[in-house]
Amino acid sequence: MKLFKEAEKESSSDRRQTLAFDAADSGEVEIYCYGDIVDSYWFYDPTHPPLGYVTQDAVKEALDQAAGKPILLRIHSSGGDMMTASTIRSMLMSYPGKVTCQIDGLCASAATYIATAGSKVQMQDSAFFMIHDPWTITIGNVEDHRVTISMLKELKKGIVEAYMAKSTLEQTQIEKLMADETWMSAQTALESGFVDEIISKPATARAAVMAKDSLPVMNNVLKRYKEVPQAVREMLQNGLDVTEEPATSVPENATDTEPNQGNMERERAVQALREKIITLKKQEEGESR
Fold first, then answer.
1. What dotted CATH number matches 2-288?
2. Helix crossing, 56-66 with 82-93: angle to 10°?
3. What's the pLDDT tens digit per position in 68-82?
4. What pTM does this model have?
């Protein structure tokens, strides 16, 4: 892991993103949770991670910039690190202003946990919502694996409780949906109580660009899941329908404009690590049969 930190130091001109933008027409501050939810540790500049990644430090900076104004948290994420999602959820729930969550495209895995922090959850009619059991990789002896199993069971309990507080489903129903890796349309998510309202409106130009930038990372994350519906793949590939460009950003000073070789090397390194984790997981599953 230290090598990733060192690589980040060499990538000072990476193209990075800011998450918070003024939405002048509504008086809200839009915060974009677009891409893979990742622990801040992985990045040399975690408050402005490379395109396609969301960290707790970046969300904290966005909340600080919002300064108590109403927030529209826009979600288009294939999931990521559950502990990071838990941290982000806690920050949103303790934010002094109103928090509305809006699912623009995909809200999967850890991203659904973040969505429960909103006082109101809206979902685009063409969007998708997915919940599943938490998983991880353990390398070690029998006791190491027992500790991990215990941890995963406790983690699932916490997730189920958060889902129960938001949805209309019972504990056993949620547990089964998670075990089955359940993909839901906007209507199904509404009927289950995970969202409060279905909306139908074009995305802003900014949202469409950020969705396109996050696509390579999100496609890589989708490899973790058992059966991704073809409709989800097509939605990601086709991008978001666009309307006019909104107001300028709150900070407007966060990014360089061109990616460099260092950024591409880091992307490849992160993807290679994820592939290794998936391979190890499959090996463990094969040995347990």
1. 3.90.226.10
2. 10
3. 999 999 999 999 999
4. 0.78
